[in-house]
Amino acid sequence: MSNCSIMSIFEDGYCGVKHPHLARLQLHGVSFTDVHEALSFLDPSRLSFLDLSNSSLCDFQFLLNMTALEHLDVSFSRMEDDSVDLIGRVGANLKFLNLSNTRLRSAGMESLAGFIPIIETLILSHTAVDDFALPYIGMMPSLKVLDLSNTNVKGFCHMLGNDQEEILSLIALQNLTHLERLDLKETQVRDGALQPLSCLEDLKFLSLKSDFLTDVSLLFLSSFPKLKYLGIRGAVLTSAGIQSFNPPPMLKILDLRDCWLLTEDALLSFCENHPQIEMRHEQFDTGSTAQIASGNASSAHGTSRTVQLKPKWAKMSSPPSRFQKEIFVDERRKYSREELLELQFSPLSQVSAR
User: 5-327: what CATH class?
Assistant: First the structure.
């Protein structure tokens, strides 16, 4: 059931059974006249899958008897820190928990620490959690998927009583030895904060998107032995940085979208040096990097190779002209990182992009 108003489920029993044995209940976007009354005819101890995403609920006391829950989705609901404690009380069997777009803060995560011991997927995107939640997350050793995108995580925090001394907060995740997927998009993570992640040897998917990241971050991202997808979107990466990047040995996809400083030549050079990696960037059409890397039959005979670039970047073929080809000088090299970021969003930049 979804996007409806519910008064009761199995009212007065079902087929003569007072408490029908229901294992899966999907109630996306529903509203309840009285949630306790509506669920009163179910056997809560048999329910293993519960989806309450996009619901208008603010009272979650009914969770207390759902001790068999393995999958719980309360995303886009009005769940707050006080209600998270109810999840901890029934979290012994919980493997999937989606708290995205709720009113959760770091204080609420303390209620879960040690109470969801076999949790494998934890989604906290678009919440107010910050670096102080990371030690509690680090107490969930079975985690395989962790989504912290669009949160207040910075990768650094201050010692209590000492606002001057910063410590690396992501070090709290080093015990998550089974972690395979980590999403840190749209956070304020900086270059140096990534260093503790190198201990996550099972990591296969790492997604970053921040204009606080520079070429320095590439040094820390070369050491993941099993990494297959690496996204460093919106970073201040330079052509020199990407050309000197030594990608992880198992890498299949490198997503550099929104890295606007990278030049076409630098991207082409990387693709030629690493033909096994699919490049994602605004300058390339889908699948073009495979063609760039492999070339075509004509290239073996000394003829030029065709590259599929998006129209705004394409080099259009034309007959010989009496004018010499203009030499292009990359003026971006003259500016500092801060000046480049200001230029990116300046009115002049918007005009030149048209």
Answer: alpha beta
